[in-house]
Amino acid sequence: MNNPAIILADEPTGNLDSKSGGEVINILQRLNQEEGRTIIMVTHDQSLLAATSRHIQILDGRILADIRGRYEQAN
Known about the structure:
Rossmann fold, two-stranded antiparallel sheet, alpha+beta, single chain, two-stranded parallel sheet, globular
């Protein structure tokens, strides 16, 4: 309970202002990068893709995309 290997985060920034949301994402990134914890995050906020090393896009129960590597949004 106090030191989980996997963290499930369902819309972790959903009801937060942008500053607080950024702090939550920074904490999740640190837990992943420095402590090796797996973070499974569900979100509708596509701006959070830049904070991930892998994302899986699901629609109607089907996997549409499984992308590894840093996400770079087209300008």
